[in-house]
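Invent a record, attention on tokens:
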Amino acid sequence: MADLGDFVTAQRLYDLLRSGGEAIGLTTVYRTLQAMSEAGELDQRVTVDGEASYRRCSATHHHHLVCRRCGSTVEVAGPDVEAWAERTGRAHGFTDLDHTVELTGLCAPCSNRRHDLNG
């Protein structure tokens, strides 16, 4: 996963492993990705088609900017989000909070292509 860099679906990872000569089942790939995600080793996001995709995650807590067109993803820090989540949880008596934030839009290259087509 560390060598892939970007998000990959279980099916795509399975195809890559099989083409590289690995004798592995698709169910094993799904289970392993899910376990690694639950352990905090992988980021998980859902594609526009509703399929889960995974990427090796950085060591620090972060959020994502995701391009709706090409799927490129950027990790971003969100200190204001962290403070808001903590305040909101505390105001409602919650402790041991966790959260996920994903912002979607068009990355610069996709936005530029859109303007070029309209322009």
User: Anything to note?
Assistant: The first strand starts at residue 8 and ends at 9. The chain is about 40% helix and 20% strand. Residues 61-119 form a domain with the Dna Ligase; domain 1 fold (CATH 3.30.1490.190).
